[in-house]
Design brief:
The protein is mainly alpha-helical and about 325 residues long. It folds into two domains: about 60 residues; about 230 residues, MetI-like (MetI-like fold, Orthogonal Bundle). The protein is built from 13 helices and four strands. The chain has a two-stranded antiparallel ribbon with strand order 1-2. Strands 3-4 form a two-stranded antiparallel ribbon. Helix 10 runs antiparallel to helix 13. It is flat, with a radius of gyration of 33 Å. The mean pLDDT is about 85.
Length: about 325
């Protein structure tokens, strides 16, 4: 309660003044805490808004050229599509036709076999060459990297024609066998050797890029790790197994996933070198879809479209299995 002092001025008692001061301090403290709480949230929202704006163009392009075509393809696969009749809704009928087709599943097996031949072999050879390039001087390493990269610019068609000549009866491959007193081999006409023969140019074409990617990963591994291992008496293969491979896990995961995906979808090499023969021994899934689309049956379009969608599911399942088998690391060191 306020009182008048002898001079006639209003004076607040000390106890009441202290309560008023404490209340004012409490209000100021609450406001300050409120501002401190609101500011980080506002900054977080601003950061999210910036991130969304940066990824928006890619999301839009992905939606236009990937997501929407995929959804529309699934929609079209439920119709009988003919150039001579109106589309007729049939539901999942073509999925049943593809799933019971032995040629479709055989093409999946051929694609997997081709990928098993190409991807592990290419990775091992590329890792050995990348390890060798890392030990060279700067000039020699630059020359080797340029030479290896030249393989990446070779057209698949050019490589196919080149290896067709190599595999001829009087070609280089049979000439090398004759030096070992071995008879000529019908490389592209024998079902047992046709796919391995096609896998060799497949390894050759992807060898350059794979080597450079592994070399970039090797250069990120600290040299102190190898020096410590050498002091402990570790040889090259022990250093590779216990240091290089574990630290390049993320790189190997990327190369295995992309390698298997591209290898299973290989079209150019079997199409040009063998046409899918002999007896479908080199008919990969994409070549099967291509031949199905060119078929003279009236509903070849619907069948090939459905087969392509099921191949998409198979590739997704393979990628999931690879990710499960190889756990990626967030960082190489730290």
């Amino acid at each position: 309660m306020s009182v008048l002092n002898p001079a006639g001025e209003v004076q607040t008692p000390p106890a009441e003044a202290q309560v008023i001061a404490d209340a004012a301090d409490g209000t100021a403290t609450r406001r300050r805490r409120r501002r401190e709480t609101v500011q980080p949230v506002a900054k977080h929202l601003r950061d999210n808004r910036t991130a969304y704006l940066m990824i928006a163009p890619m999301v839009i392009l992905l939606t236009i050229f990937v997501i929407w075509p995929l959804i529309y393809s699934v929609y079209l696969s439920t119709f009988k599509i003919s150039f001579y009749k109106d589309p007729e809704f049939v539901g999942l009928q073509f999925y049943q036709y593809v799933l019971v087709s032995p040629r479709f599943w055989k093409s999946i097996g051929v694609g997997l076999y081709y990928a098993v031949l190409v991807v592990p072999t290419g990775l091992i050879l590329a890792l050995l060459l990348a390890s060798f390039i890392k030990t060279l001087s700067k000039k020699a390493a630059s020359f080797m990297k340029t030479t290896v990269y030249l393989l990446a610019v070779v057209s698949t068609v050019v490589a196919s024609v080149l290896f067709v000549f190599i595999y001829q009866d009087q070609g280089v491959a049979n000439w090398l066998l004759s030096l070992l007193n071995a008879g000529p081999v019908a490389w592209l006409n024998d079902p047992a050797t046709a796919l391995p023969a096609i896998a060799i140019p497949g390894i050759w074409l992807g060898f350059g890029v794979t080597t450079l990617i592994l070399l970039a990963g090797l250069l990120d591994v600290p040299d102190s790790y190898y020096e410590s291992a050498q002091l402990d008496g570790a040889n090259f293969f022990q250093r590779t197994w216990f240091i290089t491979i574990p630290l390049l896990k993320n790189v190997f995961l990327y190369l295995i996933v992309t390698g298997f995906t591209l290898a299973i979808q290989m079209l150019d090499l079997p199409l040009i070198m063998t046409g899918g023969g002999p007896v479908d021994a080199t008919t990969t899934p994409n070549l099967f879809i291509f031949n199905s689309f060119r078929d003279l049956t009236p509903y070849a379009t619907s069948f090939s479209l459905t087969a392509a969608l099921l191949l998409f599911v198979v590739l997704g399942a393979i990628s999931i299995v690879v990710f499960r088998l190889i756990n990626s690391d967030k960082a190489v060191d730290g």
